[in-house]
Amino acid sequence: MNLIEELRWRGMVQDMMPGTEEQLQKEMTTGYVGFDPTADSLHIGNLVPIMLLKHLQRAGHKPLALVGGATGMVGDPSFKAEERKMLDEETLQHNQRCIKAQLEKYLDFDPAKPNAAEMVNNYDWFKNISFLHFIRDVGKHITVNYMMAKDSVKKRIEGDNGMSFTEFSYQLIQGYDYYHLYNEKNCRLQMGGSDQWGNIVTGTEMIRRKGGGEAFAFTCPLVKKADGTKFGKSEKGNIWLDASKTTPYEFYQFWLRCTDEDAEQWIKTFTFLDQNEISSIIAEHNLDKGKYTLQKRLAQEVTAFIHGQQELELAMMTTDFLFGKLSLDALKSLSDVDVKKVMAGVQQATITKAELAAGIDVLTFMTNTQIFPSKGEARKMLQNGGLSINTEKVTAQELVVDSSFLWNDKYILVAKGKKNYVLVTAE
RNA sequence: GGGCAGGUUCCAGAGUGGCCAAAUGGGGCGGACUGUAAAUCCGCUGUCUUUCGACUUCAUAGGUUCGAAUCCUAUCCUGCCCA
User: What is the residue extent of each domain of chain A?
Assistant: First the structure.
């Protein structure tokens, strides 16, 4: 199966330039995707481009990961409602380094291989281009009419917030990236989310007009939840690939909690399982949906890919203790070292033993441990029936928490809502 | 530079002197039901606080008034049209 066929059944092809498939059949092709250095870690929204590069490499082609040091300074306006905040250069550089380090974990950069992945940063070629030079040599080839006709731009022009020249020029910058890579790295393919189509086409157009060359591209549909809401956010915000921002347990939970509908699509998009295997998993899932066969497999595959097998196993174990058959009693029977390990992914809090010995009321307990920022909020949660300690629902705000709540002599397990656990350690 | 229309709580969007912490919808959070799903229903949703109440909000700074998101002045920002 060729790359495009593979991506097609996975539902990962939206738009494609004519001839792309033929080009990929013909020879080993270098293709690239850009990553914005908007934060110091990638998040699961970036997982799609990573998967694209991965598939490209598996199909024998050469992936280029472009970190947008230059484009990040400008900000992509495509389909956005308003201009985003500018990051200072120091932050951008820090972000670029972090992202680079992450990408290295997911692609094969072994230089011995002919299709080894490579990393490039567009800041490297933009830093030496002057403004005059750019508008003369690059801007000359693309008309404003052409640029304004893009849907991605129209939205902003017709919107309420306008669009700065800086943002408007974004597509030229991204377009020039492609032109540059076409010349320097013999890059013939650009991939990206469907929101990038406009920018990508500007690139191929530039290659055609400026150099008379031919370059290809395809885009992947943007991942959304079945209910149309944004993908990749949880209550706590973004789901990051960096374990110190989103623990492997939380990461695993994110995938486990998705709906049946989403899981069916996502297992195609975010795992490398083949078509047969996926259909049999779905079939099995449908026999007893309560077993979470589909979500579990999805969560396992993705967590293992991002965090590795060991972290996955710990995350699964944590899940078993908190939600599964293993109860609090089982957790209590673990050694201290094991408790720490198993609970590592769960939100942590501390309290002093002295405070507990004296006994404190629940609300103060919740604020002192910083589980809640204020008593008012803790009270609200309690009144809503959303608060429990050691798996027992707290019903009275007069409840006094003292040393008798400790298990293994140092832990208290607090839950806010059904899904959010906090392990309190007494010191 | 000129004319016009605007800037309201997470978002959309009401409110044009007291009844406004501010309608309604969405989103978020919590609960019931379930499968840690979906749908549905219920509660909460400025901050702090034991229902009382206190404090800070309606672009910013001043002013009028017993009292202002609402009126006045200046400033900043945005859109549209004209130059």
Answer: 3-220, 233-340, 346-426
Nucleotide nearest to A416 (CA to C1'): B30
- In the prediction, which pLDDT does A45 show? 86
Strands of A233-351, DSSP E:
233-234, 237-238, 347-351
Domain A3-220 of CATH type 3.40.50.620 = yes
Q: CB within 8 A of A329, min separation 6: which ones?
A: none
> A251 near A270, Cβ under 8 Å?
no
ipTM summary value: 0.84
Quickly give A298 CA vs B67 C1' distance in Å.
Answer: 61
A212 burial level (CB within 10 Å; 0-12, 13-18, 19+): exposed
A233 labeled part of a ligand binding site: yes
CA angle A68/A14/A272 to nearest 5° reads 80
Q: Along chain A (427 residues), what's the average pLDDT of each consecutive run of 10 residues?
A: 92 94 95 91 91 96 94 81 71 90 94 94 93 92 90 77 84 95 96 92 95 94 76 71 93 92 92 95 93 94 96 94 82 91 93 92 93 91 91 90 92 92 94
Q: What is the CATH number of domain A233-340?
A: 1.10.240.10
DSSP one-letter string for A327-370: -HHHHHTS-HHHHHHHTTTSEEEEE-HHHHHH-EEHHHHHHHTT
Tell if A64 CB is < 7 Å from nucleic strand B: no
- CATH 3.10.290.10 assigned to domain A346-426? The reply is yes
Asked whether the beta carbons of A273 and A281 are under 8 A apart, the reply is yes
